[in-house]
Amino acid sequence: MAGGALPAVGAVGEDFGGKLTFSVYITCIVAASCGLIFGYDIGISGGVTTMESFLRRFFPSVLRKMSQSKQNEYCMYDSQLLTSFTSSLYIAGLIGSLGASRVTRALGRRVSMLLGGATFLVGATINGAAVNVAMLIVGRILLGIGVGFTNQATPLYLAEMAPPKWRGAFISGFQFFLSVGVAAANLINYGTAKIHGWGWRLSLGLAAVPALIMTTGTLLVPDTASSLIQRGKIDEARRALQRVRGSGADVEAELQCLTEETMRSEAVEKPFRDIFKRRYRPQLVMSIAIPLLQQLTGINVVAFYAPVLFRSVGFGSDSSLMAAVVLCLVNLGSVLVSTYFVDRYGRKVLFMEGGVQMILFLTAVACVLGVKIGSSGTSPLSKGDGVLVLVLMCAYAAGFGWSWGPLCWLIPSEIFPLEIRPAGQSISVAANFAVTFVLAQVFLSMLCHFKYGIFLFYAGFIAISTVFVAIFLPETKGVPLEAMDRVWEKHWYWRRFVV
Q: Is residue 259 within 8 Å of 232, Cβ to Cβ?
């Protein structure tokens, strides 16, 4: 099994002394801020669905169910219409991410990020002004398309822009900003929930703010040298390299290496067809398996429905929103831990530790709910037990934040050769959205029927995911993108496909 960084040989595989210049920091931070819009949407939607004014206007059946004296705590939000509102973003994101591949290849990573931000901005405006469920869903579809474009292009941009030695930390920045967006959304929900009648409009409409921030920032950064060379813009690529490597750096050797890689990639005219060839089998499998398994950790539906979840197990409306804020802040801090360790100790160490941690604490949550609420769901948690559930959920979220959270964006963005990189990233993001759509569609119903067992359901999948990564994922720490093929050639299983 491959270990750490592989030695560079010749021009291919060298990191060309890539340094952490001021331009690298600024460019990558601006690009990573594209995660804000996805995070904000994840956080905001779950919060507004607990606001009575929002439910009264769009989902009165849920409000009626909540008022029933003997209502099962697990089932009060089980509404197919409410689920359609929340999950419509993900099917739109799936379509958007596949469409973004052609744009990213033909027009560049930066253009895809700009288009994503602009589309998200329109969707946020429609949602904030919504007068019926149809407007809500149309707005969310536009949000989903925007997120599909940015989620496809941004990790590619970061992978190609960052020095190989620090690639993991910079791509983890995307997850960091995603977590910032979730935390900001939950804080806003906590405040706007106190505005009777129209607070939900402010929550949904303020999604335009992160869209403006990341769109404006994207206008100020260059495209990646690989993308510019791929489109025949050699002089612009040289200037882009000089900008991020430092004004005195000699970039000609790196430019030549990237040009040669681009020439090889031009032989692939139909990347979505060629990606299914045998020699790309390892990358294709990982690009689908990693996002699929990440979603089966349960984190997105837990984050998405955190206020609903905490209210379902006995927190009041305000308390459930504040508990969701605490959960998000813990996740945000844990992503910072990942940025420190991912390039020092590698990807697999974080996968293993995070997986074990999530299994233990999800199992503990299931035990507490099983003992205190049981299967009937008619006995809300006491204040002390509610705090215990929150602490256990925070420990689970921390494990995710320094493992599967950032690594799900990192691994697919760094394993593909240039010729199929946009297509591979599109497939990875589409797989992420497809699984998230299914889980978002069924989560509230699963919570109603599985009750506390839903946490055991996710813990079981995390165990499977951890074993899969331990056996099949090679270490990619410090390996230049141009030398990534060597990782698969040295792996005990995947080498049969690439050698």
A: no
Longest dimension (CA), the chain: 73
Distance, CA of 412 to CA of 232 (rounded, Å): 26
Amino acid making up residue 109: R
Neighbours of 274 (CB within 10 A): 15
With CA atoms as reference, report the closest residue to 481 among 421, 409, 400: 421
Helices H, strands E: what count in the chain? 25, 0
User: Is 413 within 8 Å of 159 (Cβ atoms)?
Assistant: yes
Output the CA–CA distances (angstroms, integers) from residue 232 to 262, 293, 304, in the order listed: 10, 38, 42
Q: Are 459 and 359 in contact (CB under 8 A)?
A: yes
Amino acid (1-letter code) at residue 340:
Y
Cα-based torsion angle of the residue sequence 343, 344, 346, 347 in order, rounded to the nearest 10 degrees: -50
Residue with tokens 């990875």: 428
Closest residue by Cα to residue 481 from 416, 396, 395: 416
> Apex CA 331: angle with CA 329 and CA 334, to 5°?
110
Three-class SS state of 247: coil
In angstroms, rounded to a whole number, what is the distance separating the alpha carbons of residues 434 and 455? Answer: 21
pTM of the model: 0.82
| Helix-helix angle 421-450:281-295, to 10 degrees | 30
* Contacts of 81 by beta carbon, 8 Å cutoff, 6+ apart: 59, 61, 133
pLDDT digits (tens, 9 = 90+) for 410-440: 999 899 888 888 889 999 999 988 988 887 7
